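User: Hi! I have a protein structure encoded as tokens and I'd like to know what sequence might fold into it. I'm fairly new to this, so please keep things simple.
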């Protein structure tokens, strides 16, 4: 079975000389990148690439932009994935400035929590923040406080501190997070992503056409412009 991936290439850490941020940026510029999932973890259910557009069921998912925008961009992401963070910084922010804010693009988030326990906790936490209309603020905060995978960066204690720093009702948030009320929904959404061809993060669907990996913004922009020009 093919390994699930958070898109980057496997590298021998003993040979790394440049700072990690420089390496990540260089890989992003060069194109789609692959990041091996933790060893010993089972794949969720790899699917082959699908030919042509697919109808992505986004019902109930948080989105930015106009509901009836001409272009719908869906990102399947994992808050622990370093290339999802780069996607947020280099693609989502530019989309917000250029297209989402002008109602040309609707940007939808869908959970693909596959990198471990803290992926599930952080996905739940964002949804709990959504109950107080602060999903996107919390989503952004997670990426600005990302650490290594499952090293307590997104422990429940830290997630609760994030909520407090964002001015959420901490009693309601903490109760929501501790109840694990969104576990089943997140698991089902992750499985759903696999069923339509997602094999790692970030995975993007632009009007149903999938683009895998942290590709350059120019590639996303070209796809958007091609649709808008029709």
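Assistant: Happy to help. Inverse folding works backwards from shape to sequence: for each of the 230 positions I chose a residue that suits the local structure. Here it is:
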């Amino acid at each position: 079975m093919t390994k699930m991936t958070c898109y980057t290439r496997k590298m021998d850490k003993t040979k790394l000389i440049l700072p990690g941020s420089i390496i990540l940026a260089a890989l992003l510029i060069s194109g789609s990148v692959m990041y091996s999932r933790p060893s010993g973890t089972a794949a969720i259910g790899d699917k082959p690439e699908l030919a042509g557009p697919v109808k992505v069921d986004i019902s109930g998912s948080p989105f930015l932009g106009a509901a009836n925008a001409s272009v719908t961009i869906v990102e399947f992401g994992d808050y622990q994935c370093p290339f999802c963070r780069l996607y947020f910084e280099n693609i989502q922010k530019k989309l917000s400035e250029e297209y989402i804010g002008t109602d040309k693009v609707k940007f939808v988030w869908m959970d693909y929590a596959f990198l471990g326990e803290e992926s599930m906790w952080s996905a739940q936490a964002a949804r709990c923040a959504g109950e107080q209309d602060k999903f996107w603020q919390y989503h952004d905060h997670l990426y600005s406080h990302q650490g290594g995978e499952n090293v307590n960066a997104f422990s429940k204690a830290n997630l609760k501190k994030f909520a407090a720093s964002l001015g959420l009702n901490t009693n309601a948030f903490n109760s929501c997070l501790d109840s694990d009320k969104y576990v089943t929904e997140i698991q089902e959404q992750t499985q759903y992503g696999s069923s339509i061809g997602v094999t790692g993060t970030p995975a993007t669907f632009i009007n149903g056409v999938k683009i895998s990996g942290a590709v350059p913004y120019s590639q996303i922009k070209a796809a958007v412009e091609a649709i808008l020009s029709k």
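A useful reference point when you look it over: Residues 5-228 form a domain with the Glutaredoxin fold (CATH 3.40.30.10). Feel free to ask if any position seems puzzling.
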